[in-house]
Amino acid sequence: MDVLWGVYFYGSAWLVLLIFCFAAFHKLHGRSEFLSALAGYRLLPRAALRFWWLLPIAELLAVIELLLSAGQSRWLALSLLLLYGMAIFINLLRGRRDIDCGCGGDGTPIGWGLVVRNLVLAGLALPQPSPPQDLMFSGIALTFVAVLFAFLGYGIANQLYANSARG
Predict the structure, then answer these.
(1) 28 vs 49: CA distance, rounded Å
(2) What element of type H or E holds 158?
(3) Total structural domains in the chain?
(4) What is the pLDDT of residues 9-54, one digit of tens each?
(5) Domain that holds residue 8
């Protein structure tokens, strides 16, 4: 049972870490698309949009927090996921479903599926105590495979959601 706890602990940390690495890359690489998506949420004054770069920097800081704490500290990742989910939630309550989520890649309209996705990811990002023992080779291999499949599943689910949201 300790091995499974270790696989979950390290696997969830690495999954969140990978997601934030790719999210930060998409925001920095597709600056104009991200800035357009950020403006589309209409949650910040226009003047505040010049500080768009703080979000990918915060995502990279969340990656560093996960790495330096060996997965124990996940507060920044949790906060960002809840912040993003709340921004989507507020706009859905306003009836604004036609804006790009700003998640990276092809433009994906916001929807309740993204709120659920962020809540699930926030659950994975909840800070938790480290496992009582280090993983041995089989546990490390299982963690690697679990993270690989979870990350692929995340990508597939995002693409399916994007395709269904676009009609």
Answers:
(1) 14
(2) helix 137-166
(3) 1
(4) 889 999 999 999 999 999 999 888 889 889 999 998 989 999 999 9
(5) 2-166
